[in-house]
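dumping this here before i forget
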Amino acid sequence: MNYLEDFHKAYDEDGRLLSRHGQVEYLTTVKYIRECLAGIPEPTIVEIGAGTGRYSVTLAKEGCRVTAVELIAHNLDILKSKLDGSEPLLALQGNALNLTFLPDAAYDLTMLLGPMYHLYTREDKLQALAEAVRVTKQGGHILVAYCMNEPTVIQYVFGMNHLREVMDLNMLTPDWHCISQPKDLFEMVRTEEIASLDAEFPVERLKLVATDGATHYMREYIDAMDDNTFAKWMEYHLTICERQDLIGASHHTLDILRKI
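structure:
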């Protein structure tokens, strides 16, 4: 059974990122994408795991040369439906673990904003990172998104009363790390695991960012905010999203690397 394909056929990823609470993650990610592209007159970008194109299509419509690689055919069809043919975007089906169809050192910015959510072994995570590093130019940036462990324990296990279920299914280690399999769809990590992966490659970390911070803990309140209040929430969030004492409590993080 292809759990990931079935999930994406039923899940509205665009709707999530367009919601008030989803906008926090999206706007934060876009802020750091733009920082990485600053000063590059004609940037080349590859998004590995481009989904339905929320980032790739936006950047291509702004004139950036984008290669969008997506595993799930359903997502790729939606991505292509957003194009009118004038955008400098090449859409390809492919797997983050094997990008041999992409050249070495070709891109100013490589985005890996989804695949790490669905890779369950260290070996696969290292392979995906190795491919991302390989296709990035010397001095180029690599953005890698992760789902974090502690928010899942706090909000899903305890907040949504799934403790007995996850204990019965042996889905937690003795030190409360979530144990995921493909049927569970998402892999959770801690900050020290991200650092351990980075240490295997010729990269330097520039920033580790909490892309949604406290937003998901109060999602219903965020969604109900008026425009002015939401603008203030974004102002507050962007002020604290780089504070390392808060990173592990964010549902999503963004690891910003430079190839050296």
